[in-house]
Specification:
mainly alpha, two-stranded antiparallel ribbon, 11 helices, about 5% strand, globular
């Protein structure tokens, strides 16, 4: 019997009256809010407008959810289309099953559509939201804890995950909490991107590429620990191969981009800097007008002295000087 372990929730859904609140969906929603909030702060700091990140997220998030589900269903098709399975289950997202590779790929397509409609460069937007996406993944992984899924090999470490459900072929016992490992790794990736972005002034999509490369490194060793069913190619799980390929592509992009387009974008959102400049100029102009108006008002003492000088000059009487 284990003296210390991470308990699994007795159920993955809470009811607010008749409304079911599923832990998996709740974690994804919280992650999206965090990503949009942090992305907006970074976007404004780069010279963009407040609200642009949220507007584009309206396109990116639905595309990402669809892409994540498609990747999962395609790579684990036997769970839904093999004999004895119900294909309708492929639409039950709340039961778990979102592939990050498909979510990022199709989510990027949705973001590109939104960015194109706003007339902003997609690489700059990707750099702004990159750390937020990592933190969103860290939060979203706790949805797997609610569903008692995506755990690793059996273990006796004090932080072992206690699986109690036997649904879906699970064997109750104590396993490596790979969902927790990936959550902590994603937090580290988010802070890494923030630090590197400040230290090296990353631009033109390189902050996003760093996020992708760093995530793939962690996903590789975490994937190796998992024991759930998966397709294998040359002895490695499919997601391991995906992580290696995507990692190489991200590194190549960073190197080539740094040579072709060094530095960071001067303008990330056309018109945003002009609006700020116009506001500043208007304030300066208003201040100048106020100052001129104040100076234009006649001073009684100066008026009397001037009148006296003028009178003395006309009469030929010399004026005193002090």
């Amino acid at each position: 019997m284990e003296l210390a372990y991470i308990p699994s929730p007795s159920r993955g859904v809470l009811y607010l009256g008749p409304i079911p609140l599923r832990g998996y969906a709740f974690c994804i929603i919280i992650g999206v809010f965090v990503a949009v909030w942090l992305g907006n702060k970074r976007w404004v700091a780069r010279g963009g407008r407040t609200g642009t990140v949220a507007d584009i997220a309206v396109w990116a998030v639905p595309f990402g959810l669809v892409g994540g589900r498609l990747y999962h269903v395609i790579t684990d098709y036997e769970l839904y289309f093999s004999p004895g399975r119900d294909w309708v289950d492929a639409f039950k997202v709340w039961q778990g099953g979102l592939g990050i590779w498909g979510a990022i790929a199709l989510g990027a397509l949705g973001a590109w559509i939104g960015a194109r409609r706003r007339g902003i460069p997609m690489p700059a937007y990707a750099d702004a939201v990159a750390p937020g996406i990592a933190f969103a993944q860290a939060i979203g992984r706790w949805g797997n804890w609610f569903n008692q899924e995506l755990y690793g090999r059996e273990t006796h470490v004090p932080w072992a995950l206690h699986i109690t459900s036997s649904e879906g072929g699970r064997v109750p016992g104590y396993y490596h909490p790979t969902f927790l490992y990936e959550s902590l790794w994603c937090i580290g990736v988010g802070f890494l991107v923030i630090w590197a972005d400040r230290r090296f002034t990353l631009g033109h999509g390189r902050a996003f590429a760093l996020y992708v490369a760093a995530y793939c490194v962690g996903r590789g060793w975490i994937e190796y620990m998992r024991v759930d069913d998966a397709h294998h190619i040359l002895g490695l799980r499919l997601n391991d191969w995906t992580a290696m390929i995507v990692f190489l592509l991200a590194v190549v992009y960073m190197v080539v981009s740094a040579k072709l387009r060094p530095g960071r974008e001067a303008v990330v959102e056309p018109g945003a800097s002009d609006a700020v400049a116009d506001g500043t100029q208007e304030a300066v102009a208003t201040g100048a007008e106020t100052e001129d108006t104040e100076k234009a008002e006649p001073d009684p003492v100066e008026t009397a002295v001037a009148a006296k000088d003028e009178s003395g000059a006309e009469s030929g009487t010399p004026t005193s000087k002090t």
